[in-house]
Amino acid sequence: MSDAKPSWFSRLFNRGRSDATNAPASTSHGAAQHELPVSGATVGLCFDYERDLCFDSAELSDTGLAHILSVLKARQLRATFNCAAKLCEEVGHQIRTIADAGHELAVYGYAGESWANLDAAAIKALVYRCRSAFSRVGLSPIGFRSKSTQCNETIARELALQRFRYNSQHDHAKHPYILIAEDPAFVRIPVATDDRGFVRGKNDAYQAANEVISKHDRYLRKAIVRKHFVSIAFHPWILAEEPGRMSEWENWIDTAVKGGARVGALEDALPAAYRHFNPIEDPADDDE
Question: CB neighbours of 66 closer than 8 A, spacing ≥ 6?
Fold first, then answer.
């Protein structure tokens, strides 16, 4: 057996494990060495918008989206909306409404599928399908977030090849960091948690809500005090399901602003050089 130490990239994606193909990225070593530190407390506002693709209510999703956009406009804040690419084909006007309001659009898979067990060819085709769907409504997202699937090495490399610049995934890193240090580099923007605890705790909704609110406040306080990055993924339909949730979310944003945090879209947390996009042709052409 060789005594050679694995490369940073191999360690980051836990290569060498029996389940390496789908291993999640580890932040314990690589992230700290390849950070893109934010300058002071920074909050990345992001929302996962699927609109009835994964058994969520289309009506609640639209109601929540409309209210969120109104709140952000009133506070002059920008956010990232991770949208399933299929929605560009089904409700393209909704996607354009978000973009026209000045917000970032990122890809949230195609239609809520799991990417975990896809081979390289299937991933390549699906990434291009997502890219094409957004292009039909005049958008070229640089961000990608997958549902219930950590971004493994195969996915990350294909996203980078198709000119995505970052992946936002569940991760406890304190700053964005580089996943692939090539040109162009591919970055991870960490998302500390989400708001699904509101609906997971149906048996004791009051206690569940208090726990979720307390967790969100705790993450925010730490970011403000320690001057690092934090992001929590919210869902329009979950916030709209109970009026109190939307109010708590608004209070959370106001606390961030009053605490001196820089609040904006996920891409706003990246250095300017990492936010550009270079369009590409059909990736199938690469094989010719």
Answer: none
Beta strands in the chain (DSSP E): 42-49, 80-83, 104-107, 143-144, 166-170, 177-180, 186-191, 193-194, 229-234, 262-264
* Residue partners of 97: CB distance under 8 A and separation at least 6: 69
How far is the C-alpha of 64 from the C-alpha of 98, rounded, in Å?
A: 13
> Per residue in 190-247, pLDDT tens?
999 999 999 875 567 778 889 999 999 999 999 999 999 999 999 999 999 998 999 9
Domain 30-268 classified CATH 3.20.20.370?
Answer: yes
- Ordered by start, the domain boundaries in the chain are 30-268
Long-range contacts for 112-115 (Cβ within 8 Å, ≥24 apart)?
A: 112/50, 112/53, 112/54, 112/84, 112/147, 113/147, 114/147, 114/148, 114/149, 115/146, 115/149, 115/155
Cα–Cα distances in angstroms (integers) from residue 272 to residues 197, 207, 259, 269, in the given order: 34, 42, 25, 9
d(CA 263, CA 52): 29
Q: For residues 179 and 162, give the distance between their C-alpha atoms in angstroms, rounded to a whole number.
A: 15
Global confidence as pTM: 0.86
pLDDT in tens, 249-276: 999 999 999 999 999 999 999 999 888 7
